[in-house]
Amino acid sequence: MICRPSGHHQLSRVTLAPPLPVCPNREIFTMPDSTTHRQPVLAVACPTCGKPPGAWCSGPSGHRASDLHQGRKAEADRVFIAQHGDTASILRTATGWQIDPRGRIRD
User: Fold this and answer.
1) CB neighbours of 64 closer than 8 A, spacing ≥ 6?
2) DSSP per residue over 89-107, as a string?
């Protein structure tokens, strides 16, 4: 692909990265990573208040909710099981979170 930066008369070559997976509704889709957030539930958006991944839930008046919404917790469970299987669990470690693929079998 060739592009012309604004204000420059010189052409430059741009290398394109491979395309990201796309959902049927054409939005870019990436799998949430439960281990990168202070709470694994924050890996998904909240269907109740609309907060994006990583942001804490808010109440009806816009204030910070005291707990994450039940709908978000259910969605986080659904996504986690879809990604890792129904035998996986997530464990708190000294440095964050760790996925144990067979954790529920051992419990």
Assistant:
1) 56, 57, 58
2) EEEEETTEEEEETTHHHH-
**Residues 87 and 99 sit within 8 Å (Cβ to Cβ):** no
By the 10 Å C-beta count (0-12 exposed, 13-18 middle, 19+ buried), 46 is classed as buried
Q: What is the pLDDT of residues 79-89, one digit of tens each?
A: 999 999 999 99
pLDDT score, position 31: 65
Residue 107: pLDDT band by 50, 70, 90 thresholds? low
CA-to-CA distance for 28 and 73, rounded, in angstroms? 23
Which stretch of DSSP H or E encloses residue 16? none
Q: Token pair for residue 66? A: 């005291």
